Amino acid sequence: MSSKMPRLMTQEARYGVRLGYILFPIEFRDLRQSLAKNGYELSAIGDLPAPPARIGFGGEIARKGEVRVICESDSGEIGTVGRTLQGAHASFDELSSIIQTELGVNLHENVRFYWMISHYKADSGKMPYKEICKTGNGKFIKEFSEILGENVSAFSVRLSPAATIINQENWLDIAIEPDVINEKLYHIGVVFRNASREKTEEFAKNIEKNLIKLISTIEV
């Protein structure tokens, strides 16, 4: 393994849930009022139709400090965006508590799946493109080079569950590649979704130390 422990720097993290209702169970006006009551700064919107008309909504709803609340009523998703995964997760727990207390809606009932998305840069002291190219299958890289008439190499490592398809509720996608701006850094993108709250929380708890292990394994 690399003699220098890779250092992770979080760029952005998202944490939330997709609910299983046909109609999104939270009314837009009520959600905004509840967030404002609990110290959130509401995002600007245009004129709203008069009640009882329901409003479809999407995007940023409110923010508190660096944390943003996002929601897509059509797909039934609601979550938070933060600078760190731990912060986004803690803010989602706070959001869930507010909605339960103020609106009587439990975000942990009738769940299709929980989701988390995070992006990192990582510094290991090595050149990522030199390390990642070692992971390519030599036979295929040789054949690809012959087909293209160019000497090519593997540019990224991408991991997903074996023998599964993308369009399912339980999914994992980790991409590790050189950062396009700074070639001395890795860029890592992580997508995880699962119907189990416990599995999602466990994955989020361990993902950053596991990413360090993955990079160290690449750099053997």
What does this structure look like?
There is one protein chain. This protein is α+β, with helices and mostly antiparallel strands. The chain has 2 domains: 117 residues, no CATH class; 89 residues. The protein is 30% helix and 30% strand. The chain is built from 5 helices and 9 strands, in the order βαββββαβααβββα. Strands 2-3-4-5-1-6-9-8-7 form a 9-stranded antiparallel sheet. Strand 8 and strand 9 form a beta hairpin. Helix 1 crosses helix 2. The radius of gyration is 21 Å and the shape is elongated. The mean pLDDT is 94.
Question: What's the helix and strand layout?
Answer:
Layout: E1 7-19, H1 28-37, E2 41-42, E3 58-64, E4 67-72, E5 77-82, H2 85-103, E6 111-123, H3 128-132, H4 138-148, E7 157-159, E8 171-178, E9 186-194, H5 197-218
Antiparallel strand pairs: 1-5, 1-6, 2-3, 3-4, 4-5, 6-9, 7-8, 8-9
Short summary:
With 220 residues, the protein is α+β, with helices and mostly antiparallel strands.
Provide keyphrases for this structure:
2 domains, nine-stranded antiparallel β-sheet, single chain, 5 helices, 220 residues, alpha+beta
